[in-house]
What does this fold into?
Amino acid sequence: MESHRINRAKSQPPEVGEIVLIVGEERNRGKWMKGKVTRIVKGVDGVARGVVLLHKGNRLERPLQAICPLEIKSVTAETVEKRKEEPIKPVRERRKAAAMRRPRYSSYQRTMLFEK
It folds into this structure.
């Protein structure tokens, strides 16, 4: 008798803001639609049964079996704020000669600064 190993690990439903593929009739996955999860629909028992997606400005409701998570999350305002708070560190300090040199001006800047 032939036996197969089947991974029956419980998969987590996608989170809000995650990008997913919407399973279509096409065999080519490159032609499947992509959407962003806006809301998770839960059943009476509290288990996630489906999701509401945003695809090109349209809201679609699909069951969990009809989506494939892509492990891509959308950028939220919180992550943007965290990035702004983190100071950007220079890769290395400037050489002494480069730090001491006088600034260069374009010809237009020279005329505006020195011809007053």
Observations:
- DSSP finds three helices and five strands in the chain.
- The mean pLDDT is 79.
- Helices lie at 77-85, 96-100, 107-114.
